[in-house]
Amino acid sequence: ESYNFLILEDDPYSFVHFLDKAPTTFLELDTKGRVIRLDSISKVISPGLRLGVVTAHKEIIKKLTAHMETTSIHPSSLSQMLLYKLLNAWSVDKLQKHFNDVQRFYRSRRDVMLSLIEKHLTGLAEWNVPKGGMFVWMKVNKVKDVMELADKECISQGIFVIPGHAFNYDRSKPEQHIRLSYSYATPEEIDKVLVLSAPPHYI
């Protein structure tokens, strides 16, 4: 506040958490109207909708609305109508049940990926245990740069992984990390990509 900053809270996975209690948001702590919160409908209802929600002080919303009216005009009318009809048909309890089902689904996918990572990559890599979302962040040991691993062992065989370079401000630097997603892949596909991530010449 002393620097007159606004906080942009971009939290598309807020409803895809694996905790007993939802994490506290910056918006919940905001008493001065300084937080602009972004939530995603696509992550918890349907990715094809391509819709999100902005929550902010009413004066900020006015400016964002004016900007949208002169740029994209508005999101898909069909997507908006589908969401409107759905939210009118569902009770709050049913919506919460859906969120709980989404959390259970992705938690089970996460657990499958973690068990297969432990099976194939113990001693070869280090990884986090996600508390939410759809991704595992992994450091590949004994590899100075994962770009070759991603290109030659994975992407060339139709397996898409994200090298850590994509998340660095300087993408020219060597990077040992990759991001793996468990949102769509089957357990069999996850098993395949992890086998490819640990070929003999990387062990």
UniProtKB/TrEMBL annotation:
<feature type="domain" description="Aminotransferase class I/classII large">
    <location>
        <begin position="2"/>
        <end position="194"/>
    </location>
</feature>
<dbReference type="GO" id="GO:0008483">
    <property type="term" value="F:transaminase activity"/>
</dbReference>
<dbReference type="InterPro" id="IPR004839">
    <property type="entry name" value="Aminotransferase_I/II_large"/>
</dbReference>
<protein>
    <submittedName>
        <fullName>Kynurenine/alpha-aminoadipate aminotransferase, mitochondrial</fullName>
    </submittedName>
</protein>
<keyword id="KW-0032">Aminotransferase</keyword>
<keyword id="KW-0663">Pyridoxal phosphate</keyword>
<dbReference type="GO" id="GO:0030170">
    <property type="term" value="F:pyridoxal phosphate binding"/>
</dbReference>
<dbReference type="Pfam" id="PF00155">
    <property type="entry name" value="Aminotran_1_2"/>
</dbReference>
<dbReference type="InterPro" id="IPR050859">
    <property type="entry name" value="Class-I_PLP-dep_aminotransf"/>
</dbReference>
<dbReference type="InterPro" id="IPR015424">
    <property type="entry name" value="PyrdxlP-dep_Trfase"/>
</dbReference>
<dbReference type="GO" id="GO:1901605">
    <property type="term" value="P:alpha-amino acid metabolic process"/>
</dbReference>
<dbReference type="InterPro" id="IPR015422">
    <property type="entry name" value="PyrdxlP-dep_Trfase_small"/>
</dbReference>
<dbReference type="InterPro" id="IPR015421">
    <property type="entry name" value="PyrdxlP-dep_Trfase_major"/>
</dbReference>
<keyword id="KW-0808">Transferase</keyword>
